[in-house]
């Protein structure tokens, strides 16, 4: 295809644009940019009908400046070497931006998971893990996978089970993968972390008066008209949390269509209906269309509708040179990885659209993965030691207030005020505390260099990674 720019090239173009604004030597920048290792392997799968097919799988470790490397595993027919390398690179920059101390990695298996039975998927996942163990591409201190498009807690449970059966480090084995079910060492809040993070980010963005004014919008998330593409793990939670925060979800899009209501959809109810559909049967056309809502024949149509905020939360390359001129959103929050191509991004920026880049916007997932990894290494649930102590301390303070004021609190008031933080509270706190401040840092870099937010986020990542190499003393 003429003019075709691969996904990894697009990431690198964005990198180069930012790198030119730093003062690091070329050799150092090239070291950061290149993908360190990529492992492509195939294995035969005997289907339940007796047929044998060859499965193609990859794992890319983009950067080892910090160990372990970290990143999800996706199951999709679009998986290929270039995509895995691009996504691994984005993980490197993402981790740097939110201070998750990992290098970037990504894995993928080229299958349409909807076409396989549970047993076949288990066989594929366990074999994939086995191959990674054999080549030293997985381990708590080596490379730690997580869920991504087409995978979830169930796949992670198969991975940890296979890994611990094979590997020697039984004590730390649970930390070989994140996004696990709670009973297997997972952490509360990981499933919804990426969506919750995207919602926090969107609220933070809308909270900046100056930026909203420039876009002709009022300050605050309340009443903002939002369209979300993707009802998977990221999009479903993003829409639900944003609705809770007061946004109006006017469009929800999936692979085969969408629902649209300019007065607002009930995202929670639609997500519940979507989740109740069986795997392989999921379709927008199987959903009950709420009263005022309109059904859209294709997701492409939904991306082009008038809205304040567009949140692509599905796959890469959704907004390209082909549809960019018809995009009407004023703000685009990249919940998916690479949903806006670098050309389209430039066009939108020139038009004054505010794009919140993927490697910052969707970093909530890997951030909470970091908390899960820490929990596994520590072998203790967050809050386990201090929750009761905190509650008692708060109660003592409240009792002292009662003595001083002569007024007493009701039991429900005491319960609410003297609440000690449990694991879920601490995970939310850690997420909010990182995502919000990171945005303001990116805005400062944007102002300092007069660039867009994507370039600012790359500058931030490059500078943080560069320090790790500079300390080695090999670069001037
Ligand atoms: N797959 C997610 C991402 O793209 C999460 C990765 C992780 O938790 O390691 O960020």
Q: Helices, strands, pairings?
A:
Elements: H1 7-19, H2 26-33, E1 37-46, E2 52-61, E3 69-75, H3 81-97, E4 103-109, H4 118-134, E5 143-147, H5 153-166, H6 190-206, H7 209-214, E6 225-229, H8 233-245, E7 248-254, E8 257-260, H9 267-276, E9 294-296, H10 299-303, E10 309-312, E11 331-333, H11 342-350, E12 354-356, H12 358-361, H13 364-378, H14 387-405, H15 411-417, H16 423-449, H17 453-470
Parallel strand pairs: 3-4, 3-5, 6-7, 6-10, 10-11, 11-12
Antiparallel strand pairs: 1-2, 2-4, 7-8, 8-9
Distance between the termini: 41 Å
The overall average pLDDT, rounded, is: 96
In CATH, the homologous superfamily of the largest domain goes by the name: Leucine Dehydrogenase, chain A, domain 1
- Dominant shape: globular
User: Any ligands, ions or cofactors bound here, and which?
Assistant: glutamic acid
The helix-and-strand class reads: alpha/beta
Description:
There is one protein chain. This protein is of the alpha/beta class. The chain folds into three domains: 7-180, Leucine Dehydrogenase, chain A, domain 1 (Rossmann fold, 3-Layer(aba) Sandwich), CATH 3.40.50; 193-364, Rossmann fold (3-Layer(aba) Sandwich); 383-425. It contains 17 helices and twelve strands. It has helices at residues 7-19, 26-33, 81-97, 118-134, 153-166, 190-206, 209-214, 233-245, 267-276, 299-303, 342-350, 358-361, 364-378, 387-405, 411-417, 423-449, 453-470; strands spanning 37-46, 52-61, 69-75, 103-109, 143-147, 225-229, 248-254, 257-260, 294-296, 309-312, 331-333, 354-356. The strands form two sheets. It has a seven-stranded mixed β-sheet with strand order 9-8-7-6-10-11-12, with helices on both faces. The protein has a five-stranded mixed β-sheet with strand order 1-2-4-3-5. α6 packs across α16 and α13 crosses α16 (423-449). The longest helix has 27 residues, at 423-449. It is globular, with a radius of gyration of 23 Å. The two termini are 41 Å apart. The structure holds glutamic acid (GLU). Residues 70-72, 146, 148, 178, 337, 362, 365-366, 369 line the site of glutamic acid.
């Amino acid at each position: 295809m003429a003019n075709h720019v691969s996904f990894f090239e697009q990431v690198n173009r964005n990198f180069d644009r930012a790198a030119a604004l730093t003062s690091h030597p070329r050799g150092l920048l090239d070291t950061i940019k290149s993908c360190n290792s990529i492992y492509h392997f195939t294995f035969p799968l005997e289907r339940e009908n007796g047929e044998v097919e060859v499965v193609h799988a990859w794992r890319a470790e983009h950067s080892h400046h910090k160990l372990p490397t970290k990143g999800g595993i996706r199951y999709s027919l679009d998986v290929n070497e270039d995509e895995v390398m691009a996504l691994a690179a984005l993980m490197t920059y993402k981790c740097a931006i939110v201070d998750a101390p990992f290098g970037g990695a990504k894995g993928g298996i080229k299958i349409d998971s909807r076409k396989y039975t549970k047993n076949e998927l288990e066989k594929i996942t366990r074999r994939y893990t086995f191959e990674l163990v054999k080549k030293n591409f997985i381990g708590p201190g080596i490379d730690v996978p997580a869920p991504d498009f087409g995978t979830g807690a169930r796949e992670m449970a198969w991975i940890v089970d296979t890994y611990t059966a094979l590997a020697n480090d039984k004590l730390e084995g649970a930390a070989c993968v994140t996004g696990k079910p709670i009973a297997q060492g997972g952490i509360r809040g990981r499933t919804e972390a990426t969506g919750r993070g995207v919602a926090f980010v969107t609220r933070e963005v809308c909270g900046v008066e100056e930026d909203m004014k420039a876009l002709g919008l009022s300050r605050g998330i309340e009443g903002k008209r939002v369209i979300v593409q993707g009802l998977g793990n990221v999009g479903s939670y993003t829409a639900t949390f944003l609705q809770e925060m007061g946004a109006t979800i006017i469009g929800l899009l999936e692979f085969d269509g969408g629902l649209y209501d300019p007065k607002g959809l009930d995202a929670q109810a639609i997500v519940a209906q979507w989740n109740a559909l069986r795997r392989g049967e999921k379709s927008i056309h199987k959903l009950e269309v709420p009263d005022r809502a309109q059904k859209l024949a294709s997701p492409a149509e939904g991306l082009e509708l008038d809205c304040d905020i567009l949140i692509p939360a599905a796959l890469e390359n959704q907004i390209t040179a082909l549809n960019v001129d018809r995009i009407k959103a004023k703000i685009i929050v990249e919940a998916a990885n690479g949903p806006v191509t670098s050309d389209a991004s430039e066009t939108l920026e020139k038009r004054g659209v505010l794009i919140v880049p993927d490697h910052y916007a969707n970093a909530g997932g890997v951030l909470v993965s970091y908390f899960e990894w820490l929990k596994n290494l520590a072998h203790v649930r967050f809050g386990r030691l201090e929750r009761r102590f905190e509650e008692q301390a708060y109660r003592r303070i409240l009792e002292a207030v009662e003595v001083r004021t002569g007024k007493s609190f009701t039991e429900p008031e005491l319960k609410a005020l003297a609440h000690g933080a449990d694991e879920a509270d601490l995970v939310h706190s850690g997420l909010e505390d990182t995502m919000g401040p990171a945005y303001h840092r990116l805005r400062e870099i944007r102002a300092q260099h007069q660039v867009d937010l994507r370039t600012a986020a790359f500058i931030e990542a490059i500078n943080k990674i560069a320090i790790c190499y500079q300390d080695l003393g090999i670069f001037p």
